[in-house]
Amino acid sequence: MEITDPYLIDKAKAYKKIFESYEISPTHLNYNGKDYYLVTYIQKLTKKTELAIISNNDSSIGESDFAFEKLMIILNFLNSILVKGSDRSRINMEAYKVTSDFLKNVLGEVNLDNDRRKHYQYALESLEKVLTLHDQHNETIQETKKFMKNRGNKKLYIEDLNLLEDLISELDYIQYQILLTSLNMVDSFKYINDDIKDNRISRFTNNDIKKYIKEYIKSESTIKQEIKKVNYVDGLDQMTKEEHKSAVIKKYYKEQEKDFVKLKKEVRNL
């Protein structure tokens, strides 16, 4: 949607420099009865960009500064949820479902002693947990899309931060639990990978199942690296869900504070 309000266009032009084009983002923030818009200025030769925050009414620098910070936080939250979160949504979970069926067949048809059985049972519970978490992840993405649709993809409010904080921290918790669960099930799959040589068990396998089991095992080092990246708080793996979500939000705001110091140098009217 193109912005056609002459008042906003004149405000945007007031900060425009020679040899620049500009874009007024239609996604804006309503604060204290005023609508705040982000303007991006693009240098035609170097393609360097700078910003301005404008409103549909007179605003003090303090109001504009506050609105700019909140608008950027909301946009960053939405980007993290919809862009990064969507990557996880596109993962094909068929391997988990096929392997789960294999494990159910073994547990239901083969007489295993307790030591052997516990590995198959734990692997099955882990895969089912990952599948459930993946569904919860997709539900969180859909809830975010529904929120944007209800907002008409354009007008945002300060109060929206409460919902977005909950959604982004929920997503972070889910993704962390998927990593932990995937790591913890590796040992059981190492055992199963050796155990499927037993003819009573191998009859339930095929090349795909054997390949999936090896992939779970091979992913161990990658998962450990991913967990290191997100272990931004000591003892994260021991936290309750609410403690985890609270730590996530604190981390996001701390990062935003650092980013704003640099970003505001690129805002022409703050």
List keywords for this structure.
270 residues; alpha+beta; 2 domains; five-stranded mixed beta sheet; 5 strands; elongated
Q: Nutshell version of this structure?
A:
This protein has helices at residues 6-14, 61-89, 94-109, 114-150, 160-184, 186-195, 199-202, 207-218, 220-230, 241-263; strands at 20-24, 28-31, 34-43, 49-55, 155-157. With 270 residues, it is of the alpha+beta class.
Can you put this structure into words, describing what you see?
The protein is α+β, with helices and mostly antiparallel strands and 270 residues long. It has two domains: 6-59, no CATH class; 70-262, no CATH class. The chain is 65% helix and 11% strand. It has helices at 6-14, 61-89, 94-109, 114-150, 160-184, 186-195, 199-202, 207-218, 220-230, 241-263, and strands at residues 20-24, 28-31, 34-43, 49-55, 155-157. Strands 1, 2, 3, 4 and 5 form a five-stranded mixed beta sheet that branches. A hairpin with a 5-residue loop joins strand 3 (34-43) and strand 4. The longest helix is centred in the middle third of the chain and has 37 residues, at 114-150. The model has no long low-confidence stretch (mean pLDDT 91).
